[in-house]
Input
Amino acid sequence: MPMTLEATEPKKSKDSSVRDIYLPPERKKVSGGGVPHVSAKNFSIYYGEFEAVKKVSADIMSKYVTAIIGPSGCGKSTFLRSINRMNDLIPNCHTTGALMFDGEDVYGKFTDEVLLRKKIGMVFQKPNPFPKSIFDNIAYGPRLHGIKDRKTLEGIVEKSLRKAALWDEVCDRLDKNALGLSGGQQQRLCVARTLAVEPEILLLDEPTSALDPKATAKIEDLIQELRGSYTIMIVTHNMQQASRVSDYTMFFYEGVLIEHAPTAQLFTRPKDQMTEDYITGRFS
Amino acid sequence: MNLGTRKLLDRSFTALGIGSIVIMGLALLVVLAPIVSKGVGALVFRETIEHRKLLSTEFHRGDGRELEKEIALSNGYRQKAFDMLAVFDQELEQMTPERQEQYRESYDQVKTALRGLLGPLPGDTDPELARNRYGQTRWDKAEEKLRELLYEQKWDYSNPDVIAKPYDVSRAPGFAGTSLVRLFPYVEQNLDKMLLPEWTFYWGFITDSSIDAHFFGGIWPEIQGTLFLAIGAMLFAFPLGVIAAVYFTEYARDGFLTSMLRSANSTLAGVPSIVFGLFGLAFFINTLHVSESKSVLAGSLTLAIMILPTIIRASEEAILSVPKTYKEASLGLGSTKWNTIMTVILPAALPGILTGGVISLGRAAGETAPIIFTAAVSVGTAIGLGDVLSSPTPALSWNIYNLASEHEAAAQIRHVQYGMVLALVTVVLLLNLSAVILRARISKKLKG
Ligand SMILES: Nc1ncnc2c1ncn2[C@@H]1O[C@H](COP(=O)(O)OP(=O)(O)OP(=O)(O)O)[C@@H](O)[C@H]1O
Ligand SMILES: [Mg+2]
Output
């Protein structure tokens, strides 16, 4: 895939004094961010005998956006889903090594995966609103966690929808079924629904692959809005998207984490030959 | 394959489809039309004054004063016939014993036919059975009875190679020369004045209890019994079935035990219903003693066991057809498994689950064999809701069979059978319809 890299063209000016992160000037440093939020150490994920993710070691920085790229079947989704233990749904899936979230072992014996998922929200490739009203979709999470008061719920619904840049489009039909929304709106609804639970981390698995360019742009804008408030991980096949929205990029190949670096650096001066081949479209 | 052939194939398949649907519709019509047309006869018919008398005495219904007037009117005409009988009685006394003997048999038949038409004759003792206390309540039956009065049925044995054939011989010539000869044309001409037929809609057929083993009255106890049994069965089977389906689909690990349970369930669905009936008797009544003998409770439990596999299977399929994404979305928001099942999966699966429920409900209402030994009695009054634990009940399915094959006067109450069949079909259709509507509403809500 031929690429344009204007957005991440390295600037000569070295005035941004960030050492640990190489940010282009238009991307501001996030205050209070940049500490490891999720850390993997020799972390492997198996489907039965098959090792889908191989001995990954990486730190995901808090409040920044991390993109995960790689060819199809390289284990991106598997890795992403392992962070909030959605892989538990797959019967023969198990892990080795360590995955820490906020210093806690995600796969620890005493970890409450329900609580974990409340803190680590996920938006899926295909928009998956419940067959309920827009309001009930957003209120689903808060209700789950014990909020019953109508006024409070209304507040949360509005706030979440505003954060997801959907409020203006749906505020007059909150009681209508969410399946009546367009694909792009549904996807933003799913983001809003996740935000309503006030997670710390937002996992997005190809959130725009089912959307048209306009809806995609909206989601990308949304990610920019949310950057700095949430730790965001996004799986994408669109390398322009990765370079546009992310601060860090992880490149996976056949289950191995080949390179993990600040986006601007990875796309301009990849350290690994394979990364270079991939981002310049020499293989897919 | 070229375009022309493809289109032709496509068209012929469409035609085939339409054709089979038309055939199905016709078959349905062929089955339903007689049920409806004959069954309606139990409700809409020409009732005679005897029916109005019956309603007034047995159910205290109708306008008493109006009835008195009608009775007076019809009695005027009846009296003339009775007078003819009285005159003939006197004539008979003066005859020689041989001549008496000559008339005896036919005369008795005449009187029996007349009793059948008009009720007890003057001088008769009050009959014990209700069927003998009243004349013909339905005009169509009265016309049949009139034939019995006018004609004697004889059998033609002349050809020994074939089964004897009946043929009618007019009675009047047999009484030639006596005063009774006048009776036949008189009754024939004045029967409508003696019975005063009127078209009526007898809604009591649905709401009344029967009198004298379904000779008169309605079928409410049967309808109610069927409803009790079917709903009772659902009360047990539906929650149990849905819970089992949830277990199978969401909790059970694929293993030996699960696959055993699954195949047991499939096998259960294929067991003949009479086996369930015997099982119900042996297990619920004789072993568990849920009731001393037949009861609605025992019948409901038996029916519940019978429909359980259907409900489980339908629910399983409905749950499995809920998109996995709903589950992922819910769990991803920090929902527990149980909560996800209750708030997302079951609501989304509900239309499918209800469909299974409807099919089962119809089956529970219609099955005969399982309730023969566990719940059904042939004749009975409507039981109260408080009696379901201990009392048996009449039920439509069983009574249709019973009336057709066991009743001592089955031929005379065919209209009641047809009425029951219609009632059963209607009950099942109504139950289905309500569930279909419910299903449609839920589906609509889910689709938005
Ligand atoms: N449920 C599963 N059972 C067994 N193997 C699986 C399962 N899900 C994924 N895999 C395998 O694990 C590997 C990684 O799959 P994964 O879905 O993580 O890839 P991906 O990078 O997300 O691909 P894509 O870009 O196509 O979404 C693949 O080889 C896939 O075949
Ligand atoms: Mg994927």
